[in-house]
Design a protein that fits this description.
Elements (H helix, E strand, L loop, with lengths): L10 H17 L24 H11 L3 H34 L6 E15 L10 E14 L6 E4 L5 E7 L2 E8 L2 E3 L4 E10 L4 H8 L5 E14 L4 E14 L8 E8 L2
Antiparallel strand pairs: 1-2, 2-7, 3-6, 3-8, 4-5, 4-8, 5-7, 8-9, 9-10
């Protein structure tokens, strides 16, 4: 860019010439197409140095805005940190969900024994009252806690109910006792069911030691699986279908299948 120079010494004469030219142009007919007009515009000032505002604009274009770059860098770092924290939290939650996923214990029947128990009538132990015979089913149930890091409580508060059926007919009912297990623990639970009305088919099966007796054990009880990371409370129904040879003595379980609606 060139420097600004002062007006020339003959500026006044030029202004007079320009005024005379403008007067001639105004007096000349405008409708003539054969004339050529020369318009001379006076140059009073010549800018050789750009104005300050233009210099700032040029300077902004030449040098990048470091403050904008710093703001962009800061935002990128903050966004990256938030993204990294979110990924770490997701990985931790996934690990906890995988390692502390509650599983239902495994159930299996080891013995079923039918026995006669005598107790006083009217629930009083008095020699003056006759003894009443109350048949019961004594059942041994094995429970294995398959959870490696979680405790199991089954039938908590003695709120569990167990029933025994023969060919879809209920022959025994009673309360299921509560048990508590540590991770990978195995427990043998023994409980008694009061025998109800026994059908003729079941009475015949009692006298035939060679014929297998199909039975179904159903347990409805609250289950609680706990750990430091997660706790699950749920009412669970366990159904065991099994066949045994005899219920008079030590029974032999021929086949069984226990399932739960956990």
């Amino acid at each position: 860019m060139e420097e600004r120079s002062p007006p020339a010494a003959g500026g006044k004469a030029r202004n007079l010439l320009s005024s005379a030219t403008s007067l001639r142009l105004s007096l000349t007919p405008a409708c003539s197409a054969d004339h050529t007009y020369v318009v001379q515009i006076p140059r009073d000032q010549v800018y050789r140095v750009p104005p300050p505002e233009n210099a700032k604009i040029v300077e902004n274009h030449r040098q990048p805005d470091t403050q904008k770059k710093r703001k962009c860098t800061c935002c990128c770092w903050v966004f990256s940190a938030i993204l990294l924290i979110g990924i770490l939290i997701g990985i931790i939650v996934l690990i906890i969900h995988t390692m502390y996923a509650p599983k239902s214990p495994e159930f299996s029947i080891t013995n079923v024994h039918f026995k006669n128990v005598t107790q006083p009538s009217n629930g009083q132990k008095n020699k003056s009252h006759p003894q009443a015979v109350v048949p019961q089913f004594e059942i041994d149930l094995k429970i294995v806690n398959v959870n490696e890091r979680m405790n199991v409580s089954f039938g908590k508060g003695d709120n569990g109910i167990a029933t025994l059926s023969f060919k879809n007919h209920e022959i025994g009912r009673g309360k299921y006792p509560s048990i508590s297990q540590k991770p990978k623990d195995s427990t043998n639970s023994q409980f008694n069911l009061d025998a109800g009305k026994l059908t003729g088919d079941f009475q015949k099966s009692l006298n035939d030691d060679k014929k297998s007796i199909p039975m179904t054990l159903t347990i409805n009880a609250p289950m609680e699986i706990t750990s430091w990371a997660k706790t699950l409370k749920k009412d669970v129904t366990v159904t065991c279908d099994f066949d045994l040879e005899s219920v008079k003595g030590k029974s032999k379980i021929k086949s069984e299948d226990c399932q739960s609606d956990f």
